[in-house]
Amino acid sequence: MRVVLLALTVLLASAMAVAQEGAPPQHSNSEPPLNLPVSLERIREMLAEPQAPDLLGTLNGVNATTFRVDITEQAKLDDLMAALRFEKPGPQVAGGNDAYEQYQRLFPPVDNPLVQPYAAFSTRQVIPLAVEALIEKYVVDRIADVAAPASHKD
Asked: Is residue 145 part of a domain?
């Protein structure tokens, strides 16, 4: 079996080697010229002439057009960022956000579930806290916005 595979490999390799050794076809002058839609002589003449653009902005006597580019994307981004309001959601944690992050790193929620904020409250006790927070956010702030201009009309 191995001898057959070896013989087949040698046969294929020799066939490829013989095929590569073939001489390239010679072009004789008796063949008709190619009928191309372009003139090869004219292309060769144009390529032989070096044409460098003039440093003053002209090429072959024709003035080059001057373009102006204005980048306005930064102004659009600045306008968008000015329109955004970055309000801190809900009541702030005692000590600020930095103290809260440090507390989370010292006492991870996975390892210490009862040390987390609101962990001391049961579900029945958390619902009134959530309702109070929603009322404070949506109702009290709206009343303050309406009442503030009315109190300044002296």
From this structure: yes
Q: Is residue 63 part of a domain?
A: no
- Is 115 inside a domain boundary? yes
Distances (CA, A) of 4 to 10, 14, 120: 10, 15, 83
Distance (Å, rounded) from C-alpha 109 to C-alpha 120?
A: 14
**CA nearest neighbour of 121 among 137, 132, 105, 108:** 132
Question: Which residues span the domain enclosing 100?
Answer: 73-151
pLDDT, one tens digit for every residue, the chain (154 residues): 788 888 888 888 887 776 666 555 555 566 666 777 788 888 888 888 877 655 555 555 566 666 777 777 888 888 888 888 777 666 677 788 888 889 889 988 888 888 877 788 888 888 988 898 888 888 887 887 777 776 665 5
Burial 106-135 (b: 16+ CB within 10 A, else e): eeeeeeeeeeeeeeeeeeeeeeeeeeeeee
**Residues linked to residue 62 through DSSP beta bridges, in sequence order:** 59
Number of domains within the chain: 1
> Any residues with CB less than 8 A from the CB of 101 and at least 6 apart, and which?
none
pTM above 0.70, yes or no: no
